[in-house]
Write a structure and sequence with these properties.
This protein has 8 helices and 11 strands. It has 248 residues and is of the alpha/beta class. It has one domain: 3-Layer(aba) Sandwich (Rossmann fold), CATH 3.40.50. A 7-stranded mixed beta sheet has the order 3-2-4-5-1-8-9. The protein is globular, with a radius of gyration of 17 Å.
Amino acid sequence: MADHGRRVLLLSNSTQAGHDYLEHAAAPIQEHFPAGGRIAFVPYALHDWDRYTAKAAAGLGALGYKVTGVHTGDPATVVAEADGVFVGGGNTFRLATGVHRTGLADVLRERVADGLPYMGASAGTVLAGPSIRTTNDMPIVQPPTFTALGLIGFHINPHFLSGAVVPDFMGETREQRLAEYLEENETPVVGLPEGSWITAHGTTVTAGGAHDAVLFARGAEPGPLPVGSDLSALETAPHVGVAGDAGC
């Protein structure tokens, strides 16, 4: 569970149709990070770390921030010298492998508990939850553990789409996949559509962005979480952190 001094911004996506990288979330980003701040970027979710860092630097640079990739030096030192951290999207299993093998997972938990602003997008948003079990990604690598950072007390499913992707689609819908998750685990999941985000400031957790989120909880039908909803109760409900999520 996250510390009460936390500042966490979790985007469903970093790239929105019709917008430059991170442009659609410019307002919450500028509210989240200090003006002109130094941002440590975690690029482990993609293969080409330098290219990915350059993309993040361009997007955040347009908002007035200076970006340094954690891979360009000692990751813990880069984070220690930063005014905020951004964990980019890509493959969640590759991201989890990188943060655990470098020791950055513990560093991020400690720094965010001390008040360092954390921003995630897509895989970086999944990583902020108790585990990575509700990601959409293929397990292209084997991380040491599915345990994530635990900056928030519930799971997020980013890029959430309701129903069949195309007519006559016979594969599992996102609702079916999350229902399967809840057959084996107790901690609730928030389906977060593109263009939306979740902010956690201290004990206050709020749904924001362009589209309503969806709550998936064991024993209940999926229900809407309108923009502006207070999600704080999801972190203190009895089902959070029970045996069904052992290892998370």
